[in-house]
Structure formats: structure tokens, C-alpha cells
From TrEMBL:
The keyword Hydrolase applies. Belongs to the low molecular weight phosphotyrosine protein phosphatase family. PANTHER family: LOW MOLECULAR WEIGHT PHOSPHOTYROSINE PROTEIN PHOSPHATASE (PTHR11717:SF7), LOW MOLECULAR WEIGHT PROTEIN TYROSINE PHOSPHATASE (PTHR11717). This is Low molecular weight phosphotyrosine protein phosphatase. Residues 27-188 form the Phosphotyrosine protein phosphatase I domain. The keyword Hydrolase applies. Residues 1-24 are annotated as: Disordered. The gene is stp1. Residues 8-24 have a biased composition (Low complexity). It comes from the Eukaryota. Keywords: Hydrolase, Protein phosphatase.
Length: 204
């Protein structure tokens, strides 16, 4: 895939490369939706759970979620989000909604939107940071990469529909998407780590 900021996020892994758990560089990820009470906390809760149940995953230094809107700052996730997570054994997750800030682009390598509208918001905000600070291309590359979370699920462009105004089954659908996207992203990180190890071997 290609991130919304134009940076490529694809790699060409080999099945014979070293274990990614020892070669992948640490990373961080921020999940973003509108209000930070339904989709992005669902993504965060699922992702955290998968990491604890998959000890071979690449090193993740920080995981968080937030919203592009300020509608629910300080509120816990929607009860339906928590209920669906609990149905799948995710019982310890806790979160309070917060709004996206400019410093998030400095603190997270990956900033993942749940839908195209929020992806557009992230892309515009990132461009504005680059322009306002007069960043060089090299400096801009160090800002968080923005992208669509659904691109990692096998169907490029797949969005997570906001389930807030619907019934509980919308949250169950979102859960299944989060599991699929998370697994795809972890595979991507593993492949990226393996490719990095190959590059090092080729340079030696």
C-alpha cells in the first residue's frame, strides 16, 4: 500500500529470512476515528490483545487511539464497544476519549484512520504541519505516516462504518474487521523487519 502522505508501506519479504522478532525495528501506532468512543478504541483494544497473545510480534513501543472531533473528550468507550470486546475475552482494556493533537505526528510512526473522511482530515493536518514549520522532505519523512487501517485487511480501501447510530451488530462487524486488519498489519511489520535484515546482509 501507499500511505496517504506518499510514503510507500510495502515490502518484499522472503520466507527464508531471520525471525522478525529480533530484526524488526520498534514502532508505534495511533488509531483514529471521529469521536474516539467506538471504532478507534475497538481497534486499540483488539490490537493490544493480539500482541499479548502473539509473542513473536515485532516490538511496538506505544499504542493509543483518539478522535478528530472533540465530542466525547474524557468519556469511556461506548458500552457496546466494551461489550463486544468482553465477549471476545478482552476484559482489561480501559480508555478515555481524547482529541488528535499535532504532537501525535511526532510521537507515532503510524496514524491509522478508520474511514476516508478521517484519513482526509489526517492528511490535511499533516500537510499543514509540514507547511507551517517549513519542513524539508527529510524532516517531513520523520512525521507519522497516515493511512487507512482497512488497507491492511486484504481489501484496499475498506472502511470501518461508524456503528454509533446503529444496532449492536455493527460493533460486531467492526470487531471482525479490527482482528483482520490487525493481523494484516502485524504481518506487514514482520515482513518489513525481514526485508531490513536482508538489506543489512546484502550490504555486508
Amino acid at each position: 500500500m501507499t500511505a496517504a502522505n506518499g510514503a510507500s508501506t510495502t515490502s518484499s519479504p522472503s520466507s527464508t529470512t531471520p525471525s522478525s522478532s529480533s530484526t524488526a525495528k520498534p514502532t508505534s501506532i495511533l488509531f483514529v476515528c471521529l469521536g474516539n468512543i467506538c471504532r478507534s478504541p475497538m481497534a486499540e483494544g483488539v490490537f493490544r490483545h493480539l500482541l499479548t497473545s502473539s509473542p513473536s510480534h515485532p516490538p511496538i513501543t506505544r499504542i493509543d487511539s483518539c478522535g478528530t472531533g472533540a465530542y466525547h473528550i474524557g468519556d469511556p468507550p461506548d458500552p457496546r464497544t466494551m461489550s463486544v470486546l468482553e465477549d471476545h475475552g478482552i476484559t482489561s482494556y480501559r480508555h478515555r476519549a481524547r482529541k488528535l493533537s499535532r504532537k501525535d505526528f511526532d510521537e507515532f510512526e503510524w496514524i491509522m484512520a478508520m474511514d476516508e473522511d478521517n484519513l482526509d482530515y489526517l492528511s490535511r493536518m499533516r500537510r499543514k504541519i509540514v507547511e507551517n514549520k517549513g519542513m524539508s522532505e527529510e524532516e517531513a519523512e520523520r512525521l507519522g505516516k497516515v493511512g487507512l487501517w482497512g488497507d491492511f485487511g486484504g481489501n484496499p480501501g475498506e472502511e470501518v462504518v461508524d456503528p454509533y447510530y446503529g444496532a449492536r451488530d455493527g460493533f460486531s462487524i467492526a470487531y471482525e474487521q479490527m482482528v483482520r486488519f490487525s493481523r494484516g498489519f502485524l504481518r506487514f511489520l514482520e515482513e518489513r523487519g525481514e526485508q531490513g535484515a536482508l538489506d543489512e546482509l546484502n550490504r555486508s
